[in-house]
Amino acid sequence: MRLRRAWQQGLGQTAASGELVDQSTVLNALAIEEVGYGNSAVAMTLTGALGFVSAVAGQGTSAQRERHLPPFQSDTPAFAAVAVVDVGWFRGAGRATQAVRAGAGWRIHGAKALIPLAARCDRLLVTAETGEGVGGFIVDPKSHRLRIEPARGTLGLRALRMADIILDGVEVPDDDRLACSVRRVIDASRVALTAVLSGLARAVYD
Predict the structure, then answer these.
(1) Domain residue limits at 96
(2) Which residues in 136-149 are b (16+ Cβ under 10 Å) and which e?
């Protein structure tokens, strides 16, 4: 119920509408902070979907927007996540996630850490090194060679069912690679996480 109410505030629907709306990162952060004040688990779930939608709306092609954004335009919450943090970075071992050319598409190898509600997500935006910089790839969580495993070493926020995703040569068509740089996506995900934690800290202090 709380997630539905937060979703109905319209942040995700506005970004997914297809209209050229300049939706401020600061405005999104303030809204997410307020949700985080009331329920940080709901705020994290909202952040994942909003991050995916904003990335596809802002950096995706028209075909990608038409294919991936309609589920986020209704008042019923849709689930997605932006997978930025490599398991190796988070646990101090391992390599960064890599994407290599494979025919008309890409093959992704690596692992991403702490994905909220990964088992419920319909879409993931995965960042990976391509040899020409960091690229963003829209990945179906049900893809062959993708595994979802419970995250280890976490504390609190159990409602989020944090998970790691293992990409063992997951194939992604070139049509599902974002055409533009994902640096803005990575920066926005950090701002969003900071907003959630700021809201949580305010709630604890109050």
Answers:
(1) 2-205
(2) bbbbebeeeebebe
Q: 6: helix, coil or strand?
A: helix
pLDDT band at 22 (very low <50, low <70, confident <90, very high): low
Cβ 49 vs Cβ 72: under 8 Å = yes
Q: Would the CA dihedral through 132, 147, 160, 50 be positive or negative?
A: positive
Tell me how far apart the alpha carbons of residues 163 and 147 are, in angstroms, rounded to a whole number.
10
**In this prediction, what percent of the chain has a pLDDT beyond 90?**
36
Q: How far apart are CA 174 and CA 148, in angstroms?
A: 23
Residue 51: CATH number of its domain = 2.40.110.10
The better pLDDT of the pair 97, 179 is held by 97
Structure letter (DSSP) for residue 159: G
Which residue in the block uniquely carries the two structure tokens 């505030």?
9
The predicted model scores a pTM of: 0.87
The tally of domains found in the chain comes to 1
